[in-house]
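Title: Prediction job returns without error message
Component: structure pipeline
Severity: low
Priority: P3
Assignee: unassigned

Description:
Job completed but the reporter wants confirmation the result is attached to the right record. Sequence as submitted:
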Amino acid sequence: MPLDCTKRQQAAIRCDESLWAPYANSIQTRYVGVMLPQGGANVHFGMLYFDSQDTVDVVAHEISHLLGFVDEYPLQAEHNTCQVTQTKSFSQNIAVLENTYYGDRRTIRSKILKQLAWGKYIKDNTPILQSVTASNGKRNWQLGTPEEFNNEVGVFNAQTCKKTNAKMREDFSAYKGLAQRTQLQYFSLSFPPLYSLLLKENTTHYRMPSFHYNIALAYFQQSAIGKNVSEDVALQRIARHKKILSLQIIGLNNQLGGKVNVTDTIKYVREVFNIWHELILFGINL
């Protein structure tokens, strides 16, 4: 198939993902991998891009993103991961949480552990909150496990959101379960046993959506209303209409008398959902 891609050496590879639509029904995998002569390796939802010179370590790192792991090196300041605190656990290895808490320590600890994919592996005697007295004399709790517990599973600062603006960094940070550096920070390092265990337990919970999501998003961005709209804005609009689109998919499913196949769904998305200008494949094995 023809590929329309940007493949500059120092830039992340990006392609016109709508071109996959004619082939989608014949692809039996959830994800698609594309190898090009050059360009920066990356995962874009259900598509993995890498160049022919990338090492096995680089490809393994990118595959981990498909499975729900987030980079532990500093992301770009505007990256979605680092704009607000999470409302629920969103990845295998990273949590974006407030730095400061007030109230009963046990209650706060219990709430935080529920926000961590690795929470149940933190021992009861491993602290995750440290008492601090502010300049106004008010006592608060700072999130973080002390250095003397660096060999334990805990809550440690990650580099992930270090490029976020200073004011936002005062309010929240990215945290990880291990003090050690891992393959999510440096390609050549190991994938720690804790991460393998989390992956085994949460094989599907945090994984990326299928490559069909990419096709739908590409169609939206190419539509009249989608032109000159950033991907972030497009995704916000898609999320806003998720319930509406889910109901439309159910309606299509009923009309067709059973499971919606990819070809029918893409056709429906393009022709009927155009009134919403919000193209996404919710509800069909994403």
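Comment from assignee: result matches the submitted record. The chain has a mean pLDDT of 82.
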